[in-house]
Amino acid sequence: MEFIYLLVAATFSDNFVLSKLLGVYPAINAQDKKAPIVREGILVTIALTIISVLNYILYTWVLEPLNVSYLVTIIFSLILFLVVQLTVSISKKVGKYNNEDISVGQIVTNSIILAAVLLSIEQDHIMHSVAYAIGAGLGYTLISILLYDVMDRLDDMAIVSAFKGIPIRLIALGLMAYAFSGFSGIMP
Amino acid sequence: MSTHKNKIFNTSLLAAICTGFVATTSLKVALSMSIAVTIVLIITNLIMNLFKNRAPNSMLLLFYMVLTAFMTGIMYLIFQAYLPDIVNELGIYIPVVLFSVPLISQIFSDKGNYSITNALTTSIGFILVICCIGIIRGILGKNNTAILEPPAAFIVTGILLAILTGIFNKKKTV
Lengths: 188, 174
What we know:
Shape of chain B: globular
Structural class of chain A: mainly alpha
Distance between the termini of chain A: 12 Å
Largest interface: A-B, 53 and 50 residues
Order of helices and strands of chain B: HHHHHHH
Number of helices of chain A: 9
Order of helices and strands of chain A: HHHHHHHHH
Number of strands of chain A: 0
Number of strands of chain B: 0
Largest sheet of chain A: none
Strand content of chain A: under 5%
Helix content of chain B: over 70%
Largest sheet of chain B: none
Structural class of chain B: mainly alpha
Oligomer: heterodimer
């Protein structure tokens, strides 16, 4: 029950992009097709889950008993590089698509990953940290897809030229955040 | 859908600003966080310039990430020692912002090659824009706590970026 509660909370009511203001740029910098956005979201979710499991094990069994928990960012950066490199190259081998559009740098710079890992190593059970990581990745994917659809309609309208591009996307994201804050009512 | 190119804000500066939203609740928070980001960015780029020619090219990103994480750890300890009220307010977002912004300014930059010029331009722009948002949210939030909530950060920043773009483009054509 706790698993489902954490998953739904991290996806909707406690969404990382809208209520924690992280990973905003990769979400608003949409590409011209929907498939790369979905693909990037899935890659982020998979990488985030693996990284948070590895970090949880290292943190609770190695770093905390030795009393060196301030090393967590350095350990995190090593694991992040390794896992993202592996995930991207495996997905390129398995997926067989023309892959100019996904690079290591694009996933590494997503600030959701570090925040979700640092929040999930404080959970009291390893399954809870897995739920938190999956929820964070799913929430990010959901927001990028929704924002792509909003921008697809906004492009045909007449907007003042200063607002075109990033500013109107930020304002649309803000209105979406007000709408999503209604989800906090479904939690017990 | 075509991505609209912005003239004054290059890609790395925009991405850095979007990452730094968390630290814009007041002027004090914004100023201390952006100065910390500047210190991390410049020291990391200086050290990278020494190692650039001696390391294999594919491993440079790993070196950069580990160096940034190292500097982030040191800055977080300094924050805990001297600015405990900011640590109470932001918590784990301090290492997140300190770690992400240098990586973003390196990976999204057009020039590449770990140049100090790029680090300086990004950090000056970052300080200016983040402090502007901090001042606006700090002043408006005194009477109206809705401004201090997360969704207002998007709207304030969107309007501010649009105003800056409008002013700058007008001056350039005249």
